Structure formats: structure tokens, C-alpha cells
Amino acid sequence: MPNENYIYRVLPTQMVLFWEAIKFACKEADEVKEEDLPKYFNELLHALLSDKAQCFVVLNSEKILEGLALTRLIYDKVTGKKELLLQCVYYMKHIEQDELMRNLQVLTDFAKVENCSVVTFTSRNSRVWEMAKHSGCAEKHRTFVYKIGG
């Protein structure tokens, strides 16, 4: 029988308890350049403390952190509809798709409470693409970058 996981929303006043884990997860998952990390983390901490971004943690039955997700409530500039952006989802261990889907249901439920029309995320990871495809996600768009200068 798999371990029971518990998912909690971290309050802004509790953020300090998880800050090091958040920084680790973001550094691993968000592919931010090393020189941009101070600005990135400064903005993220401000957003988390002001509740402009949200943090959810996955704890096992021994209260050991197994994963976390960072979200933001945003508005689509074209449609004006509210969306839940999954900024970062990171697990400290390998999980199967069915466990991931059970855990993501908490975020989907949060999105419904917040009157979001969709949950969105971006990824360069092909495994994430496959999981998204098998989960019924539709591709919204792709982003490409053309580097100018040095």
C-alpha cells in the first residue's frame, strides 16, 4: 500500500519554514540562469509573502516533505478569464502519473474555488509533455526564443 500523502497550502506567515525547499525546487525545475536567481527569488518571495503566489506542499505520513507546487492566479490578456498558473511543480522522489494526478486534483479544486477557467503550465521537459497529453491537456501555444547579441 502506498504511503498516504497530505497536501497543505502554506500560509504567507509560514513561508519561512519552507523557503529553502522552495528555492531548491525552483532552481531545479524552473531553469533560471544562475546570475538571474537573486532577482528571481526576490520577486518570488515578495509574491509568496503578499499572497500573489501560493505554495502547496506534499507531506508523507511522517510529515517529510515529498513535493511542492507554486501557483499564481493570473488573467488571460486576450479573454480576460482568470487562470491558475502552475509556476513550479517539483517532487523529491519519482512519482507515478496516477499519484501526480491525485495531488494535482487539490490544485484543480483550488482553481475552481478561485473561479478559474483553466489551469495552465509551461515546460521544456518531454516527460511532462507526455503526462499532460495523457491527462487530457491541450497545447495552448509554444514559445520560442531568438537570442540577440552576446
Describe the structure.
This protein has helices at 15-29, 37-49, 97-113, 126-134; strands at residues 5-10, 53-60, 65-75, 82-91, 118-121. It has 150 residues and is α+β, with helices and mostly antiparallel strands. It has one domain: Aminopeptidase, CATH 3.40.630.30. A five-stranded mixed beta sheet has the order 1-2-3-4-5, with helices on both faces. Strand 4, helix 3 (97-113) and strand 5 form a beta-alpha-beta unit. Helix 1 packs across helix 2. The longest helix is centred in the last third of the chain and has 17 residues, at 97-113. The relative contact order is 0.14. The mean pLDDT is 89.
Brief summary:
The protein has 150 residues and is α+β, with helices and mostly antiparallel strands. The chain is built from four helices and five strands, in the order βααβββαβα.
